[in-house]
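Quick one, tokens below. Sequence please?
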């Protein structure tokens, strides 16, 4: 059972928190009650249900991707220890688990709304295209990963009946491109890179560094423009959201450090994914927490009691 759970890579499901983003733009996400402010359970419940749908789909997608990549994973210094590549989970069982997860997830999406079902179906379809063919095409592979994040946000919007703005779509897509190029830059510096992922031999460090610089700056600029947009200021009734921009800039530069950093002894880091490095990095996590606190404090006008 432990290996089956590990095969689904639940530590990667943190990416599905993007489904929750539109919930915070629902005008009634926080209700005024006699006991004080409280979350709207109906809106929150639908957002969490949509997030769970994408977690199930993500587990199925990771499983299918590992089935397709099993031979390449066996020559990878870290990925060879994955449940399917190591033989801990038989391929036949992995296929059955993936099929069940897809059926349950898409059925759950249909129960939420037609929009959620459409976004979830497109997410699954584009991941199929990615796993079986397009992950071998440089830049297209990362673009599909970015599309997956945009579909998560759209699904969250459909689930909570919140209009997803162009700024939210742009920021999500650019951030996902930035993280995707960072992952490729991390992978290309490891041993046997071409054997691990065929598209890597078509990437160059210089091209990836340029892509990281462009998408990183574009993400930061888009976020600043969003915080200063008239519609944003009117919605949140605040002109202070731009003060959260330094946290975004720090997060971008910290990620670049983690992608290109070296471990003790001067050896290049060999983590399975930069995502794992981020979740283990105290400065990055602390910065993320402070960003959330700052946004909440500004939006809800929280002030320290005197």
């Amino acid at each position: 059972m432990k290996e089956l759970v590990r095969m689904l890579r639940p530590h990667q499901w943190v990416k599905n928190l993007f489904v929750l983003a539109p919930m915070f733009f629902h005008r009634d996400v926080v209700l005024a009650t006699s006991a004080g402010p409280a979350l709207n359970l109906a809106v929150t419940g639908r957002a969490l249900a949509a997030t769970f749908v994408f977690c199930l789909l993500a587990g199925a997608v990771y499983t299918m991707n590992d089935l397709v990549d099993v031979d390449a994973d066996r020559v990878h210094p870290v990925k060879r220890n994955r449940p399917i590549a190591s033989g801990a989970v038989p391929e036949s069982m992995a296929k059955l688990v993936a099929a069940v997860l897809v059926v349950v997830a898409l059925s759950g999406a249909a129960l939420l709304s037609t929009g959620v079902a459409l976004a979830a179906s497109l997410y699954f379809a584009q991941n199929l295209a990615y796993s079986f063919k397009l992950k071998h095409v440089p830049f297209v592979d990362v673009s599909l990963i970015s599309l997956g994040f945009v579909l998560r946000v759209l699904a969250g919007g459909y689930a909570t009946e919140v209009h997803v703005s162009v700024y939210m779509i742009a920021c999500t897509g650019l951030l996902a491109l930035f993280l995707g190029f960072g992952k490729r830059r991390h992978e290309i510096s490891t041993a046997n890179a071409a054997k691990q992922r065929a598209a890597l031999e078509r990437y160059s460090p210089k091209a990836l560094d340029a892509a990281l610089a462009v998408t990183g700056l574009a993400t930061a600029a888009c976020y600043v423009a969003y915080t200063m947009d008239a519609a944003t200021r009117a919605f949140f009734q605040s002109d202070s959201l731009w003060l959260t921009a330094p946290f975004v800039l720090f997060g971008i530069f910290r990620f670049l450090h983690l992608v290109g950093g070296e471990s003790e002894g001067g050896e290049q880091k060999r983590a399975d994914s930069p995502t794992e490095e981020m979740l283990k990095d105290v400065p990055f996590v602390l910065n993320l927490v402070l960003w959330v606190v700052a946004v909440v404090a500004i939006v809800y006008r929280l002030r320290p009691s005197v």
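The CA atoms of residues 14 and 188 lie 24 Å apart. The first strand starts at residue 30 and ends at 33.
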